[in-house]
Amino acid sequence: MTSRADFIVVGAGSAGCIAAAELIRREAGSVLLLEAGPTDNSPVVKMPFGLVWMMGKRHRDWCYKSTPQTHLGGRQLNVTRGRMVGGSGSINSMVWFRGRKDDFDNWQLPGWSWAYVEPAFESIEARLTPNRMQGAHPVTEALHSLFPEHGTTPPSPEYESAGVFAFNMVNGRRRSAADGFIKPNPPGLTLVTGQEVDRVLFDGDTARGIRLVDGTELNANKGVILSAGSIGSPSILMRSGVGPRADLAALGIEVRHNSEEVGKNLHDHPAAGLHFAGPGSGYGITPAQMPGWAAAPFQYLMTRRGRFASPTVEGGGFFNARGLDEAPDVQSHFIPFMLGWEGKRYVYGSGYFADVCVCRPKSRGALRLTSRVPKAAPEIDLGVFNDSSDMDTLVAGLKRLRILMDQVDFGTRHAPEAFPGPTVQSDEALRDHIRDRGATAYHPVGTLRMGEGDAPVTPRLTVRGVQGLWVADASVMPAVTSANTNAPSMMIGHRAGEFIAEDCA
Ligand SMILES: Cc1cc2nc3c(=O)[nH]c(=O)nc-3n(C[C@H](O)[C@H](O)[C@H](O)COP(=O)(O)OP(=O)(O)OC[C@H]3O[C@@H](n4cnc5c(N)ncnc54)[C@H](O)[C@@H]3O)c2cc1C
């Protein structure tokens, strides 16, 4: 393979597809979009319930694990990351939230306040047409009874609200950044799958191309854009010699630019949940529901409804963990399925599940390379609960979740809490529950923070210390947004396309 492209974009994920498409739309030059994983041409990707079969399978998931988490009793968490065209946006639940307006204002970076990012969201939404899920389970619909003043509109992180979420699904099918922006392939854009990038190549301090894991070198006339996500992009950057000097030197990597913060500031939304079980409540495995499961594939094919049209998470809400008259500080995801607990994937019976996650966690971890060899997984310390206030908020959030779940008008579908169960009441017992079962929401961000001063990436998304190299993905978020991170990652891809086209004009 050879390249005469103006730009090489590494990673065809949520942000990378949009950055690439924007560069083409703005006539900034030709683009070679390289993706390590396979295409997304599969019914398992398109069918919302299909994520259940993709997660944990190396074909479409990088299957990373965190380091043992000190405040989770030494447990290692799954760090699921999509490995295919569409990236994590092809394996996710498609919940669509821009975030809170002041998430972006609080970044306090030129070009990133709400007034600047809103048009990018609007432009993306015009293509992907996210909307309130059709055909949600009645127990999910019942969540709207909590805050009836909002009717049946999807909840918002701006105020306390609950109900069926909006999703980037159209007619029961996933509509990812890849679907919306690079299909059909715009002229000037070449997508190549199955090509894993090892590192960036430089002429002096200027990025001139990339080296693939198989040793192939590819040139880019105008520059390289890293869109390999919060785990992939800092790993590639460090293998390219940009990162903390001592760490790189210890691995025998020639240091091109000492950037101490590369890999730092890793964070995610910490989460823990409650399981509810009762006959006739949510989806589950019972004799009465067996005909429904047997019919599910046909129902999906014919009507795009039913279990297989469910992205598992169907709704939830936002509330203040301590019930204060303040902005929501926790989000809840509601899954109208009986999920297993105590290590079991499935449990017999009908039920539903609701979690709570901290909207603005204060804990920070770090990502480090373990080897200069590209196939070696990095060390991913999510730093969960390094700041004890996150644990306090989650404990308060679980207590409030219990109260709210009791108030939902589920009618005859109401199910009592089955796990951890009503005996787990004290703060200490809830802390133990979180320690033993808590996880994160698969929203890792921040490993290539953009900012002023020593931040690895500038607010124009250029990598500090070198030329012709940009980052466009969730890794640049200085602080995670208050809700799910797919739409904000896409927005970053969109802004990247704007900035790079302007800067290379
Ligand atoms: C299971 C799961 C559920 C989620 N649910 C939701 C949800 O419902 N709503 C929501 O808003 N967010 C959700 N998220 C999070 C959201 O999908 C991500 O925040 C978002 O997709 C991140 O976009 P990105 O562009 O930063 O990275 P990605 O979309 O992950 O893209 C990175 C791409 O780079 C590729 N890549 C990596 N390394 C290399 C390399 N060396 N060479 C070439 N290519 C490479 C990857 O294969 C991938 O395609 C979920 C995530 C997961 C994993």
From TrEMBL:
Its EC number is 1.1.99.-. Its cofactor is FAD. PROSITE patterns: GMC_OXRED_1, GMC_OXRED_2, PROKAR_LIPOPROTEIN. The keyword Flavoprotein applies. Keywords: FAD, Flavoprotein, Oxidoreductase. InterPro entries: FAD/NAD-bd_sf (IPR036188), GMC_OxRdtase (IPR012132), GMC_OxRdtase_N (IPR000172), GMC_OxRtase_C (IPR007867). Belongs to the GMC oxidoreductase family. This is Alcohol dehydrogenase [acceptor].
